[in-house]
Write a structure and sequence with these properties.
The chain is of the alpha/beta class and 869 residues long. Helix content is 41%, strand content 19%. It is built from 26 helices and 36 strands. A hairpin with a 2-residue loop joins strand 34 (780-781) and strand 35 (784-785). Helix 2 crosses helix 3 (68-98) and helix 14 crosses helix 26. The radius of gyration is 37 Å and the shape is globular. This is Diadenosine tetraphosphatase.
Length: 869
């Protein structure tokens, strides 16, 4: 367009602005003005003259008036210098476009091929490109040229002027997103467009997954999110939050028209945002009268439009068609929400590449509507690629389109399409809280026997895609929130356990690490003492605690099925169950392990346990004794030989010192010290031997369950530890292999002192110690999860952990400087991962979804932490 009177031109927020004009037309003067006015940054201006200086030390070589030979040489040098200057400049421009920066190109650009390369560069980078043409009279150009330090010459100015005149009409057809011809640049104001896809999140946003015409469920979610309807039918949040739709608000479901009208009304009122989507795009084109095939539920929207016309009349229907057409066809491919210009959340329908974020083009819109696909499977369904494994730019990307039974978080991406129209759920994601709100579908509206949720269930037992996990990933847990594990830890865990664990389908829970109390004991001569654990829980507002005897054995998980057939629904094949260690390895060698499982199964079946509890399985967290069942190599390598050598060495030294004392030598203090150290060695040797014995058969082992984790259809994380202890007492009465765990309940100072006396007596007799737990499995203080358990080990036992001389005053002083922060964090995260994995197993989630919890816990275990804690 031509600009004659004073007005404002909006420069794009990013992309290219190509200046076109003969020498002396005022391009550099205009740019200097825009920089001084703050419209442009100096770094956003790229000049061909500047690059000529960079590569050739000068911006112009004058070859006129010289002998032919010299003139030709200088002209060739200038051509070479210009070519390299533009080559370097184009490289910088491509980089800036890739980074979604604005760049104004200061050069004459009088030839169509020179301008066309910038149109193509912008298209390749998915950024806008604008042309600003400075159409200055020839007389003004000549006058300005005469005043230059290095004039271009009358002939050259005239040639450039004529060239521009011939090009003026065609520039508008060269593919620029906007083209302005400026007769008098001084009468034109310039402003800068804001990033159209970026919005400040304000008080927060509530992102709702694919609705597909499930209007009633949509209103339920919105009301559960705290929005309230006003007299005009608009929903407001009292805190000023905004609703965001990932698209596909229509098709398949029963009330598509109401759903899309709701979102248009709220978007128009500035109360909501809606993203473009595959169904939205198709319906928009249908409303525009284009040839589209209405299938996959889109035909239901067309039926609703016919019904609307019959009820409201043709005029009203045509008006609605036009309004909805414009609304759907102009929906953004994605939106960015953040604060202070920083991106926090990207909302898209089916996916997005990192370098697409903040840009717009037809290709980006297609990618955001359909995701990354590679053809179709044998049933004609699109084969979707896992685009999210390459997400590295840091923002949370919230998306839908691909229905999954539960919200999934992988690599900072969150899928919130839970297939409400297929009988699943409608999910909303609250940000910055990072919380989910879901409502179940009232019915399976689509009634599709091959729906995505059905196909998802069919592939329940498919092995996980490790490529999604190997670079690090996040697990969203209900109790702790997001737990993120680093790629190196994941690789280490995979390398460590990939060939030695029980089958992946049976590996459903990794028990969390257990931390000592955050503070070391204030009691003289003690490193750990119950008082510090009790004080921690009191500080967290816990009124009732349970203290359980800590068995000197090895941690184990027992998954026991009612019968082999019952296992098929949970693990995909017949089995009586499995018993494995904290690292996922089989606890027993296969033959003996089979005997243990058969004995436990027979005992529980005979006692009617499965029928009475109406369950197909029981999942137990337990301790198995004797300790040497799994710790034989550890005992032999680190304890037995060390103890024997110390006893031999120290006993001989004590004997020699006694002889020296009899001979009249002054060795009394030394003898006293060595007698104490000899006593330490005796304590060290005794500390583990009483927990080791030879195992010749089933009668020699004992299993002490202390958590009953789950039955069919339910977990027991909401139960008190008293309930768990009593239930495990019941188990001990059903099988001779099970043993009861002694415990005490703490409610006041009297019961606290009683537990401390009990602990002292027990540990002085050589027992390991106790575990103090809050009343319930999961407890929080001000919405933050507190430690699920704190171990308090006895003085004698700690000899084998910290060394036989750890109680020597200078050693104990040093040990009391230990830090448990990382251990505590890991205990919380692993506890949350364990609970999340069991919940997923109980609701028969996919192996991949369960395994991401297990692998995350194993990854945390592979991170370096003082193993003595």
């Amino acid at each position: 367009m031509s600009i004659s009177s004073e007005r404002t031109i909006d420069l794009p927020h990013a992309g290219l602005v190509v200046l076109v004009g003969a020498s002396n037309s005022g391009k550099t003067t205009l740019l200097d003005r825009l920089v001084s006015e703050g419209v442009l940054l100096e770094t956003e201006v790229v000049s061909s003259d500047h690059f000529r200086k960079l590569v050739g030390d000068t911006e112009f070589i004058d070859w006129r008036g010289l002998p032919r030979l010299e003139s030709d040489m200088l002209f060739y040098e200038y051509q070479q210098m210009s070519a390299k200057a533009f080559e370097a400049m184009d490289t910088i421009l491509a980089m800036r476009c890739r980074l979604n920066k604005l760049t104004v190109v200061d050069a004459t650009h009088l030839y169509a091929e020179d301008r066309q390369k910038y149109v193509q560069l912008a298209a390749k980078a998915h950024v806008p490109v604008m042309a600003l043409v400075l159409d200055v009279p020839e007389s003004v150009l000549l006058e300005r040229d005469s005043g230059r330090a290095h004039p271009r010459g009358r002939q050259r100015v005239k040639q450039q002027t004529q060239l521009l005149k011939r090009n003026l009409r065609g520039i508008r057809e060269e593919g620029f997103d906007a083209c302005y011809v400026l007769k008098d640049v001084e009468k034109v104001n310039f402003a800068r467009c804001a990033q159209p896809l970026f919005h400040d999140m304000g008080a927060g946003i509530d992102i709702i997954g694919d609705i597909h015409g499930c209007y009633r469920e949509m209103l339920e979610v919105i009301e559960r999110l705290g929005y309230m309807e006003d007299t005009e039918g608009l929903y407001h949040h009292p805190e000023g939050r905004r609703l965001v739709s990932v698209g596909d608000v229509m098709s398949r479901g029963p009330e598509s028209l109401l759903a899309v009208q709701f979102w248009k009304k709220h978007v128009d009122a500035g109360l909501a945002y809606m993203i473009d989507s595959n169904h939205g795009w198709k319906i928009g084109r249908y409303l525009d009268g284009r040839k589209v095939t209405l299938n996959h539920g889109d035909e239901r929207f067309a039926e609703e439009m016919v019904q609307y016309e019959q009820k409201a009349g043709k005029v009203a229907a045509e008006q609605l068609r036009g309004e909805l057409r414009d609304f759907l066809l102009h929906a953004p491919s994605h939106l960015i929400f953040g604060r202070n210009g920083l991106r926090h959340v990207v909302v898209t329908h089916a996916g997005i590449k990192d370098h697409f974020i903040g840009k717009q083009s037809a290709r980006i819109s297609d990618y955001c509507r359909y995701g990354d696909t590679e053809g179709q499977d044998a049933d004609g369904k699109p084969i979707r690629k896992d685009w999210f494994v390459d997400h590295e730019s840091g923002e949370i990307v919230v998306w839908g389109h691909d229905p999954r039974p539960q919200p999934t978080l992988v690599n900072q991406t969150v899928n919130i399409d839970q297939g409400v129209v297929f009988g699943g759920m409608l999910t909303a994601y609250r940000y910055p809280e990072k919380e989910f709100v879901s409502v179940p579908a009232h019915e399976n509206y689509a009634n599709d026997p091959d729906s995505p949720l059905v196909r998802w269930q069919r592939k329940r037992f498919s092995p996980p895609n490790l490529r999604k996990l190997i670079a690090g990933y996040s697990v969203l847990t209900e109790s702790y929130g997001e737990v993120r594990v680093q790629g190196e830890s994941v690789k280490t865990a995979i390398d460590t356990v990939s060939h030695v664990t029980v089958p992946m389908e049976e590996l459903v829970y990794i028990p969390p690490t257990m931390s000592p109390a955050p503070k070391v004991s204030g009691e003289e001569g003690y490193l750990e003492h119950p008082r510090e654990a009790l004080a921690y829980y009191r500080s967290q507002g816990v009124q009732t605690m349970v203290a359980e005897k800590k068995h000197m054995g090895s941690r184990a998980i027992l998954l026991l099925f009612k019968n082999e057939l019952a296992a098929v629904e949970y693990v995909g094949y017949p089995t009586l169950g499995t018993i494995y260690t904290r690292s996922g390895r089989p606890f027993f060698e296969s033959g003996f392990g089979k005997q243990v499982l058969e004995k436990l199964n027979a005992d529980l079946v005979d006692a009617g346990y499965f029928e009475q509890n109406q369950t197909d399985f029981v999942l137990l967290d337990a301790e198995i004794v004797p300790w040497n069942l799994k710790a034989r190599e550890l005992i032999a390598a680190q304890y037995a030989h060390v103890g024997e050598a110390a006893l031999l060495d120290r006993s001989k030294l004590v004997d020699k010192l006694k002889q020296a004392k009899v001979a009249g030598r002054e060795v009394g203090d030394w003898l006293e010290e060595m007698e104490q150290k000899y006593g330490n060695a005796v304590t060290f040797q005794e500390a583990f031997q009483k927990y080791c014995w030879d195992v010749d058969g089933l009668d020699e082992i004992r299993i002490a369950p202390f958590h009953t984790l789950a039955h069919s259809g339910q977990t027991f994380f909401d139960q008190s530890h008293i309930w768990h202890m009593e239930h495990n007492r019941e188990l001990a009465g059903l099988s001779s292999i099970f043993m009861e765990t002694e415990y005490r309940v703490i409610t006041d100072e009297t019961s606290e002192e009683e537990v401390i006396r009990w602990w002292n007596e027990m540990t002085e007799d050589g027992h390991e110690g106790i575990v103090i737990k809050p009343e319930r499995f999961l407890m929080k203080n001000r919405d933050k999860m507190i430690q699920p358990a704190i171990k308090v080990r006895g003085r004698k036992y700690l000899h084998i952990i910290y060394g036989m001389d750890y109680l020597v005053p200078e050693n104990l002083k040093r040990l009391k400087q230990r830090r448990t922060n990382k251990k505590e964090r890991h205990a919380l995260m692993e506890g949350a991962l364990g609970m999340e994995g069991v919940e997923r197993f109980v609701r028969k989630d996919t192996v991949e979804r369960i395994h991401e919890c297990v692998l995350a816990a194993l990854s945390l275990e592979s991170e370096p932490i003082d193993p003595r804690l």
